[in-house]
């Protein structure tokens, strides 16, 4: 009996996703509202894919708003998949903005946000700083050490340094130092970003 319910739910989601891919703005809006009520984390990739396609500004805003309103922790892995997948680079900044607006804790991904802050666009770096500032923890020491490693590699590289990004990375380094103090580590975590 449970198998029938899953099948019916999946059929309903498939119908909503078909409507999401419509060329009609109203039909797409209705599908987004339906996903808000009936969707689960499995619809995040189709939403992100649709966001990259030809879509009205209204529909794009509705999708970002839906992603920003997520509360279910099962969405965390799906959102991070989108952030990490190169094919979604054109919308990564929008997804990062949605992440810092969600009520989901992404503390387990602190090192990935540091990496993006270093290697992504300037706006992505700002979003990553905002995300990191709002992380609640607890943090895994190895994630913080990996974050420190990313920052040290950036500082010691010969690549030209952007002054504005350096300010953001300094803020991130200070926040990471606070996180490291919270995990009661004896490791030296004195990072100075020039």
Detail the topology: elements first, then pairings:
Elements: H1 2-20, H2 25-38, H3 44-51, H4 57-68, H5 75-84, H6 92-101, H7 110-119, H8 122-133, H9 141-156, H10 163-182
Helix pairs in contact: 1-2, 2-4, 3-4, 4-6, 5-6, 6-8, 7-8, 7-9, 8-10, 9-10
Task: Give a quick set of tags describing it.
single chain, mainly alpha, 2 domains, 10 helices, 68% helix, 0% strand, 194 residues
Can you give a write-up of this model?
There is one protein chain. The protein has 194 residues and is mainly α. The chain has 2 domains: 78 residues, no CATH class; 90 residues. 68% of the residues lie in helices and 0% in strands. The chain has 10 helices and no strands. The longest helix is centred in the last third of the chain and has 20 residues. It is elongated. The chain starts with a helix and ends in a 12-residue tail after the last helix. The C terminus is likely disordered.
